[in-house]
Amino acid sequence: MINEPSFHPTNTGWIEVICGGMFSGKTEELIRRARRAQIAGLRVIIVKPPIDKRYEDEMVVSHNLTKLPSLSAETADQIVLLTGNAEVVAIDEAQFFDNRLIDVANSLANDGKRVLIAGLDMDYLGRPFEPMPQLMAIAEYVTKLHAICAESGAIASYSQRVVNSQDRILVGESDAYEPRSRGCFRPPHDTRRGRIIPKPDFNNHNKE
Questions:
Q1: Of the listed 16, 28, 29, 93, which one is catalytic?
Q2: CB neighbours of 105 closer than 8 A, spacing ≥ 6?
Q3: Measuring CA to CA, which residue among 198, 186, 176, 118 is closest to residue 152?
Q4: What is the torsional sign of CA 173, 177, 182, 184?
Q5: Which of 32, 41, 76, 156 has the fewest CB atoms nearer than 10 Å to its CB?
Q6: What's the CA angle centered on 100, arms 99 and 103, to 5 degrees?
Q7: Looking at the domain assignment, is residue 5 inside a domain?
């Protein structure tokens, strides 16, 4: 279910969290909400951590090639400096920021801003991925999205690592992860069970 607010007092801020596993559409949903805010005439700034360089450095990009311009923030505190004149602050890949993001998100919302946050709620071992659980707790609205399990075709909540690495943070796409349901999830890593999800082809996309 897409738990997006249909009404909220315009003189107050609030927090919306979009969570789920890999390939569940979190960034796509973040972009959708940001674009709707832009259409409404609001000033929107999108921020992501610099570690996310999978597609474009100055764009936030979903798997289906939807994208919007973004800024990179080295730390959660820097987000406040980058979004001073924004009415809507969208933060992608929130799990790559430290726990200061909790206070930053509260501060932005208390200043009257709408704060959109997207990120993984669990790591490759199936453990809660901080600071997402805390952000979900303080948010007014929480949306959990699901992918489709690469092995069974069931609803997938887990991000199965398919390369042998023990690093908690491993930025990757279809080369390193695939979506899995609870019954098909085998941490810490497993062989690939489904087909490789094709990476976006920006060259062909830009020709359209």
A1: 93
A2: 15, 91, 115, 117, 135, 138
A3: 186
A4: positive
A5: 41
A6: 115
A7: no
Q: Is residue 200 part of a domain?
A: yes
Supply angle C-alpha 174, 176, 180, rounded to 5.
75
Scanning 62-171, the segments in alpha helix (DSSP H) are: 76-82, 100-110, 132-138
Rounded CA gap, 189 and 186, in Å?
Answer: 6
Cut 0.85: pTM above it: yes
Count the neighbouring beta carbons within 10 Å of the beta carbon of residue 87: 17
Cα–Cα distance, 84 to 3 (Å, whole number): 26
Q: What single letter denotes the amino acid at residue 50? A: P
**For position 88, which CATH number holds?**
3.40.50.300
Average pLDDT over residues 61-86: 85
The whole-angstrom separation of Cα 44 and Cα 91 is 11
Instruction: State how many domains the chain has.
Output: 1
What amino acid occupies position 36?
A: R
Whether residue 93 lies in the annotated active site:
yes
d(CA 69, CA 55): 12
Over residues 128-183, the pLDDT tens digits come to 999 999 999 999 999 999 999 999 999 999 999 999 989 988 876 668 999 999 99
Range of the domain at 67: 14-207
- d(C-alpha 82, C-alpha 71), whole Å: 8
105 located within any domain: yes
